[in-house]
Amino acid sequence: MRRLRWAVADGWIMTRRNMAHLVRTPEEMALYFTLPIMFILVFGYVFGSGMTLPGGGDYREFLVPGVFAMTMLYGLGATGSAVAVDAGRGVIDRFRSMPVARSALLTGRGAADLLRGLLEMTVLLVCGLLVGWEWHRGVGRALLAVALVLALRVGITWLGIYLGLLVPNPDTVGMIVFPLAFPLTAMSNVFTSPELMPGWLGAIADWNPLSATVTAIRELFGNPGVGGDSWATENALLLAIAWPLLMTAVFAPLSIRSYQRLNA
Questions:
Q1: At residue 63, what are phi and psi to the nearest 5 degrees?
Q2: With pLDDT > 90 as the criterion, what percentage of the chain qualifies?
Q3: What are the residue boundaries of the structural domains of the chain, listed by start?
Q4: Taking every pair of C-alpha atoms in the chain, what is the biggest distance, in angstroms?
Q5: Backbone φ and ψ of 224, nearest 5°
């Protein structure tokens, strides 16, 4: 218990450190908030008039849950770059030479990114309400939907930590993240229904981890676009839980191993 309290206390200090860095770089926050808001405005108002949904429904109500999940995915770049900066500049080595719990650097990074994801969700929820989006199935299900989005962020955070430790160069991490995140977003149900895609592409979109979370939260919010008769669509809630757990189970041990071997 003493070691656990020590690890929790040090992890909270590292969380505060990472959040302090976030506050001191408001231009980075502005960039990460501006992009999803622009997607809502441009796709919702410019392209939305030409979009049709299987079964009908308002396109902005279809779009906003997709942007929630997409924002969590693009947080991968911020996580990977922050870890790469610490690793490349020797900050991690300096902390490892101090009497700090070995787990604190990773848990602090993960907790800070979760808080950041919660902040991003709060801003996007307000933006969604301002453009006419709303939930229709009660506060309890809405909170469960937000929890699923944050669970996706946790799995993605561990992937970002692993990339940052594997390639301790923020520019290189950025070059990796975009080719990874863009196809995942494009081949998903964020902007359009898989039913409108060619058969093979629609099948890929149905099994996309991003699509699982988007379908599940659309259903919980009571928003349109939940149609489809594939197993992945009918069991989206199960997959929205399973995919983040799988990502965490795979990339958390890999991150820990990379951290232990860093400059060993």
A1: -75, -45
A2: 30
A3: 2-261
A4: 60
A5: -75, 170
